[in-house]
């Protein structure tokens, strides 16, 4: 959720400033771009060099900064507009009261006033300061501006006293920010089920019938759904890909029968279901229990149909928005529409093998999104990550807009 986000960290002069080194590391680990603006007193508690090294960006604290023969103007407006979100941690009583009154006597405060993004602040101070009516009034005022307060916690304070006033721990600051950001996401509270990858149908203990599906399209769909706020179950056949999001649970399966079982286990609870797997249509009638020896000059393997997972889900559909894929080589649109009807789908994603770069194996795909009204939305050739975004935009437009 924080990957690729521009995060501006404002650090003010409290002892908890030392903890911001860990916060910066966590933000960088989460894939964020971090810039830091520091008040003069904060630099007495945490080294700008440490912060610059961890954030991989110069740390700024003055409007005008001279180094050798050069003098730079640190533009607070540019910094404020660069940020996708600003976190002020620790936020001292002094800085917060200035934020609340529009005081602007340092670079951090000027940047705060210029920032149009969501602003989070994590108060830190001694317990009596935290309880003081003027502090309480300040906190309420900042919240009324739409700023998000990350409450201080209770514990031992730098003064040696015990009570409320400790800055939230870096991990908790990150969780708070993530939770708050996710509330505005379009698939928050929704459950998405996705099938992905190939299935392997065993011939004997060492051989199988499979296909070249990489699973990438399904994994990109899962990542996209998770980024949009959904809880995702990804039922995947054998693949080299891994899911990199806390909200994705991967259920690993091998055969069509296992995929059928897993998909049915999670189906009833799901709001959106996308079958992107390239399920084997046939499996060996009998699976040899021992490795088959090459004693004969030729051999036949009897095949029987696998269960059509998507069809079976369509038959018991209640409120789920059910989407299938169709890989076609001729009469593409007609075949896809017929599949949509036969399998009782809400939409079908058509790949034509006549389009270069479409289908499975590669990193790109070219799709048409067809719904039950026969509305056809055709997209350009794109990366599978971008195709996933297009697919969810179409679903959200039809189901949740
Ligand atoms: N599918 C499935 N279970 C199967 C076969 C297919 O869930 N046993 C799903 C795929 O995940 C895909 C859709 O059905 O979403 C279309 O699969 P495809 O193989 O293209 O079409 P079929 O319906 O099998 O028809 P045909 O092979 O005749 O084109």
List keywords for this structure.
single chain, 401 residues, alpha/beta, Rossmann fold, six-stranded parallel β-sheet, 24 strands, binds cytidine-5'-triphosphate
Describe the secondary-structure layout:
Layout: E1 6-11, H1 20-29, E2 33-38, H2 48-55, E3 59-60, E4 64-67, E5 70-73, H3 76-82, E6 85-91, H4 93-101, H5 107-114, E7 119-123, H6 127-131, H7 133-144, E8 148-149, E9 153-156, E10 162-166, H8 170-183, E11 191-196, E12 201-204, E13 207-209, H9 216-227, E14 231-236, E15 248-252, H10 256-267, E16 272-275, E17 282-284, E18 303-305, H11 309-315, E19 321-328, H12 332-342, E20 347-352, E21 364-365, E22 367-371, E23 376-378, E24 382-383, H13 384-399
Parallel strand pairs: 1-2, 1-6, 2-3, 6-7, 7-8, 11-14, 11-16, 14-15, 16-19, 19-20
Antiparallel strand pairs: 4-5, 9-10, 12-13, 17-18, 20-22, 21-24, 22-23
Helix pairs in contact: 1-2, 1-8, 3-5, 4-7, 9-13
Residues 195, 256, 275, 277, 279, 281, 306, 308-310, 324-327, 339 line the site of cytidine-5'-triphosphate.
């Amino acid at each position: 959720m924080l990957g690729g986000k521009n995060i501006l960290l404002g650090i003010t002069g409290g002892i908890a400033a030392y903890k911001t080194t860990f916060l910066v590391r966590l933000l960088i680990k989460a894939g964020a771009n971090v810039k830091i603006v520091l008040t003069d007193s904060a630099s007495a508690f945490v080294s700008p060099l440490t912060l610059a090294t961890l954030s991989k960006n110069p740390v700024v604290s003055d409007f005008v900064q001279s180094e050798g023969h050069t003098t730079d103007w640190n533009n607070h407006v540019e910094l404020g507009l660069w940020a996708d979100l600003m976190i002020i941690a620790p936020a001292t009583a002094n800085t917060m009261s200035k934020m609340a009154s529009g005081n602007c006597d340092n670079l951090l405060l000027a940047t705060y006033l210029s920032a149009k993004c969501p602003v989070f602040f994590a108060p830190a101070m001694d317990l009596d300061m935290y309880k003081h009516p003027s502090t309480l009034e300040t906190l309420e005022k900042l919240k009324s501006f739409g700023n998000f307060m990350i409450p201080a916690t209770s514990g031992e304070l730098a003064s040696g006293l015990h009570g409320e006033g400790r800055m939230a721990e870096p991990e908790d600051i990150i969780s708070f920010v993530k939770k708050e950001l996710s509330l505005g996401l379009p698939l928050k509270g929704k459950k998405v089920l996705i099938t992905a990858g190939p299935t392997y149908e065993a011939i004997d203990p060492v051989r199988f019938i499979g296909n070249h599906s990489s699973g990438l399209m399904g994994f990109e769909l899962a990542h996209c759904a998770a980024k949009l706020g959904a809880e995702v179950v990804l039922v995947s056949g054998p693949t080299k890909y891994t899911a990199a999001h806390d909200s994705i649970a991967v259920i690993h399966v091998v055969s069509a029968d296992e995929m059928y079982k897993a998909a049915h286990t999670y189906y009833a609870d799901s709001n959106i279901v996308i079958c992107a797997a390239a399920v084997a249509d046939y499996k060996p009638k009998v699976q040899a229990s021992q490795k088959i020896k090459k004693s004969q000059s030729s051999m036949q393997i009897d095949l029987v149909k696998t269960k059509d997972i998507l069809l079976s889900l369509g038959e018991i559909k209640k409120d789920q928005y059910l989407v299938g894929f169709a890989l076609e080589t001729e009469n593409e649109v007609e075949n896809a529409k017929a599949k949509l009807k036969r399998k009782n789908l809400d939409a079908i994603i058509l790949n034509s093998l006549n389009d270069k770069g479409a289908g499975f194996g590669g990193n790109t795909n070219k799709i048409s999104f067809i719904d039950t009204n026969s509305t056809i939305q055709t997209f350009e050739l794109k990366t599978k990550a971008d195709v996933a975004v297009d697919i969810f935009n179409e679903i959200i437009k039809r189901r949740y807009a």
